[in-house]
Amino acid sequence: MPSGEKQYSFVQKIWIAGGILALITILLLLIKATFSVLLLVLAAVMVATFFRGVSGFLHRKTGWNNKLCLTLSVASTFVLLGLFFWLMGAKVQEQMVKLSEILPSTIQNARSRINQSPMGQKILQQASSPETMDKAKGLLSTIFSSTFGILGDMYVILFIGIFFTVSPFQYKSGIVKLVPEAGKDKANDVLNKVGANLKKWLKGKLFAMLVVAVLTGIGLAVIGVPMWLVLALIAGLLNFIPNFGPLIAMVPAVLIALMQGPATAGMVAGLYILVQVLESNFITPVVQKKLVQVPPALIIIAQVLIAPLTGVWGIILATPLLVIVMVLVKQLYINRKYVG
């Protein structure tokens, strides 16, 4: 051993190893906490992407000043939402009240129907066991947890989103400045591609949500299901969440249809499945044909992995997060590999 090298005793080595382990643990905990906040930032980026997209559309169609178009984008969005809830709010609120009144009795009716068969009795017995209930409560409390509470999260997302909307280039240039000089051009190009892909994905998703809400509403009205309007709105909104959203939206519709009989419930379930098949195989591929294709299984894996750590925002934002990751991998690894 060289004479200048410092020697450590066994106790000192233990303390050093313990310190390194503690530092790693603290860093992992910080990453976990920070990741939840970063998801809120991502949601704010999506809000800004929407506002900037509407602003760009107005600018292309009218030729007006960018600041005026941006102001109109934000203001018109809030005005249209206000008018929608003012015009439809009374009807939606009435149906929501009916839905909350009917659901408990509908669930009990469904339980009694399932309980009529031996297999159904076993399923209900297993599902209502204390162990299953405790696991379900723990899972739901984890999934539906949030960083600052739902209202707090929405305030943070909207507040940061408006700042991003007003001056996105300032924040983008700040990120680029963190990159070494040799990689600044590449970083700027990658950020532009990430923004473009997020914009395409969001545009396609909003269109798909609208189509799902319209098709579901028409189908439920034709079948004669009560409260079809609020059920269609729920289906459209929850379609933003891949895989799990449509299943969650189908549950109250099927339960309400059960009040009119198993045949009606079957038609409603078939309607929801048909709408999702159309959305998944025809609508989304057409409107997002130039977007980075995200494999459905990869979305489910991301949702399952992220949800226990970050709650509901992980489920909602798993797809745009995957879009960002895939763009980064393509631009920073795959393209460079083939160029090299």
Automatic annotation (TrEMBL):
Superkingdom per UniProt: Bacteria
Keywords: Membrane, Transmembrane, Transmembrane helix
InterPro entries: AI-2E-like (IPR002549)
PANTHER family for this protein: TRANSMEMBRANE PROTEIN (PTHR21716), TRANSPORT PROTEIN YDBI-RELATED (PTHR21716:SF62)
Transmembrane spans: 12-31, 37-58, 70-89, 143-166, 206-234, 240-258, 265-284, 296-329
Source species of the chain: Anseongella ginsenosidimutans
Sequence similarity: Belongs to the autoinducer-2 exporter (AI-2E) (TC 2.A.86) family.
Localization: Membrane
A Gene Ontology term for the protein's cellular component: membrane
Protein name according to UniProt: Putative PurR-regulated permease PerM
GO biological process, one term: transmembrane transport
Membrane topology: Multi-pass membrane protein
